[in-house]
Design a protein that fits this description.
Blueprint (H helix, E strand, L loop, with lengths): L12 E2 H9 L3 H9 L3 E3 L2 E2 L6 E2 L5 E3 L2 E2 L7 E6 L21 H4 L3 E3 L6 E8 L2 H8 L7 E7 L7 H7 L14 E4 L4 E6 L6 H8 L4 E9 L2 E2 L9 E3 L2 H9 L5
The structure holds uracil.
The site of uracil has 8 residues, from helix 6.
Length: 248
């Protein structure tokens, strides 16, 4: 596996997490190494597993510098009925769709409801996922919704103004709507409040029957991925998520 130099650490992380990621050992095995004084931080043995490792610090074991693996960026076609969670005692989670070695590393970049399908991103790059999910970055997310009823005539105007949801102080940001047929629409939003799309159509007197996420920023779900399948993003796709520019 490619290893990036320890100096390329993207953000500070706990020493036990660093050692576990860099060696492939479990977190408790990493802690045992640290407790034994086997891990050097900038040349000195550190026995505190919670010590933060910052960019440019050198971590060594048995005379070798430890380095983090290349960051992972994955897209998954989430099936309906699977939870967007890292673990659950009773229900299947999206992480169970990945090989265990990858599942142990990544976190979810935002969530989809259990009954929503489509594009879900996973990564171990916390700074990147923050940019995708932070409301300040206004990363657009596009969904296809199948509605229970034909949509009211002035839906475009009300969505463009910013809907007011019940029990919410601030109105929503303007959302884009395209009608695909009488009961199918494409909707684009730039924030991610709880059950947002379902609640938006409820506020318009309708009900979402099925919901599918098609796009995040400039990245469209690969239509060769069947529900439950995943693949790594290319560097261009990773950039397109944040730039919003679609790939040609
Ligand atoms: N909005 C919803 O209501 N559900 C989702 O899963 C995503 C956006």
């Amino acid at each position: 596996m490619d290893r990036r130099p320890a100096t390329a650490l993207r953000q500070a992380m706990r020493l036990d997490r660093f050692v576990s990621h860099a060696t492939g050992l479990s977190r408790s095995q990493a802690r045992a190494l640290i407790r034994r004084g086997d891990i050097l931080l900038d040349g000195l043995a550190v026995t505190d597993a919670g010590r933060q490792v910052a960019e440019a610090q050198r971590v060594e074991r048995a005379g070798a510098t430890l380095a983090l693996p290349e960051p992972l960026y994955l897209m998954l076609n989430k099936p309906c009925g699977v939870l967007s969670a890292t673990s659950d005692s009773a229900q299947q989670t999206v992480l169970s769709l990945l090989p265990a070695t990858l599942a142990a590393r990544v976190h979810l970049v935002g969530r989809l409801d259990k009954e929503t399908s489509g594009l879900l991103l996973l990564t171990d790059d916390g700074a990147w996922s923050h940019q995708v999910t932070s409301p300040n970055h206004r990363c657009p997310k596009t969904y296809i919704a199948q509605l229970a009823e034909p949509l009211i005539d002035d839906a475009e105007r009300r969505l463009a103004q910013g809907l007011q949801l019940r029990n919410q102080k601030a109105p929503l940001r303007p959302a884009g709507l395209r009608r695909l047929d009488a009961v199918r629409v494409q909707i684009t939003i730039t924030e991610g409040r709880y059950h947002q799309v379902r609640r938006m159509f409820a506020a318009l007197g309708n009900r979402v029957v099925t919901l599918h996420r098609q796009r995040i920023g400039g990245l469209v779900l690969d239509d060769r991925l069947r529900p439950g399948q995943w693949r790594a993003l290319t560097a261009a796709e990773r950039a397109a998520v944040l730039s919003g520019q679609a790939l040609r």
